[in-house]
Design brief:
about 400 residues; alpha/beta; Rossmann fold; 15 helices; globular
Length: about 400
Amino acid sequence: MNILLVNHFPLQGSGSGSYIANIAKSLVKKGNKVCIITPENTSNFLGPKDIKLHPVFFKYEEKILGQQEFNFPCFDPHPRSSLLFDNMTEIQLEKYEEAFRKAIKEEILEFKPDVIHAQHIWILSRVALEYNIPVIVTSHGSDIMGYEAWPKFHNVMYEVVEKCRKIIAISNHSKKDITSIFKDNEEKVITISNGYDDKIFYKEDCKKEKILNELNINKKYNKIVCFAGRLAKNKGVDLLLQAAKGYDREDILTLIVGAGEEYKNLNKIKEELKLKNVIFLGNQDHDTLRKIYNISDVCVVPSRKEAFGLVALEAIACGTPVVATNQGGMPDFINDKVGILIEKENVKELENAISKILNEKIKFDAMELVKYAIDNYRQDLFVDRLIDVYKEISNKNERNRKCI
């Protein structure tokens, strides 16, 4: 099959970007052809091999031929853009839609997709529905946050839900959120969990001191706590810093991987709490992130809101237990064999859970964690279900297929 993936965000720096990169690789491995239409604001972007990339360029740090005069919009700030959908002018919205409309038209003619798989119940999904190509939409949670925050986009979302063939929820919690809003189309919503890329995230023999030296950290530490994700308010990194005040010792290092609008504020909190063993590493590539997971004793996901929590799954795949909030999709896959769930905004509970793992009052078998991830959550397991959905909606459309 030819599958056209359309996303509101680049492949790097967002959960939906990682999602489509992962499923694209699995789809190609199973003999399908994939094209991805995505916004970009740098000419130095990378994508999975054997996949056609169609970037729509936006203004950022360099001048790129044909780029829009503004940056790509977001639900909440992205590491490479702070423009929110709600702050766009009418002219910007029109140009935004038209740029992607042009890209989708071009790929319908050149790539000839059997199915369009759009991300987010949002603007670009509505644009994708303008053609006689069957469309399914994955909701990533941020679109539901957009619904709650910005009523002016309600009509767009209702139109998408009404006209698309299927809506994929990435967790049971996500499905509940979607069906509570779009009750008349509840039958369209199916749950297909996120999977992780087992070719990138896996257990390996990493020497702690060597990896820390590669990160320009020359001090020796006995235990390591890690966080990975956008530095945004809803990710709860401020709560981790408050918890670190309780477990902070000279032999315990806390590594924070990621970038975002909360960076300055989080550094200020670090200074106010006088945390000497907390290091912000900024964005890191996947190979480095895998090594960080492997040398860590616990990965912390203290989110206030989290549609799924792929970071937690990646850490488990590397044999690292997780302390996470009882939010979104994380209760679907985090149990007492692989980690500890806590209530959100509860700093004391967060500190206690981390400390129990660091002090080995609660122990985990790294290889059991790895096996659990491989057996239940590697991406290939879920892409088969996706392909079944693609085939189902494509067959229904085959008899009447006038594209434009």
